[in-house]
Fold:
Amino acid sequence: MSERWHDWLLLPQRIALHEATATAVIADVHLGYAQARRQLGDAIPLRRVRDELAPLSIAAKMHDIRHLIIAGDLFERGYDAEVCTEFLDVLAEWYITCIGVVPGNHDRGIDKAAPLIPVLADPFDLAGWHITHGDGTVTGDRVIQGHEHPATRIARRKVPCFLTRGTHLVLPAFSRDAAGVSVEGSERWIGWARHAIGDAK
Structure:
């Protein structure tokens, strides 16, 4: 179930949608995670980029999404040309234009993706909102950030969540492989509202 917050619609697909500009913002996609784990010897199934992005496709069919901004960590272990091409091909099929990536701490070598994927200034301004990854110092108001992978508990089950306080929004990790970091018991998140995603896809 989606929820309105200021100029945004918080979607259960772990997406913040700025309706006025038809722009979806996601963070911590971590494409290439399964490949990286397999290289380390873990026996986990590979998923195509199309499968990783499936929640975006679901949201795009329900809402007017024409643009996409990634608030950091598009890749798991730095830029991967093959994964990047597949990512852009899938977006093109869905008629979604990638505005660009605000680099995150996992996006090593992201400059190699330009000009296919623009590398955006940190923070990037979208209609007066400041989009950042959040692995450095985050200041100011009207902030949309990633990096934290917030999660909360519902009926003893840990689920991803959005965090809000005033005009500051912390996005959940878009990647289904990100277990999430529980905000319960953390002094850092006292006073923040939790918007749990009970049916995380």
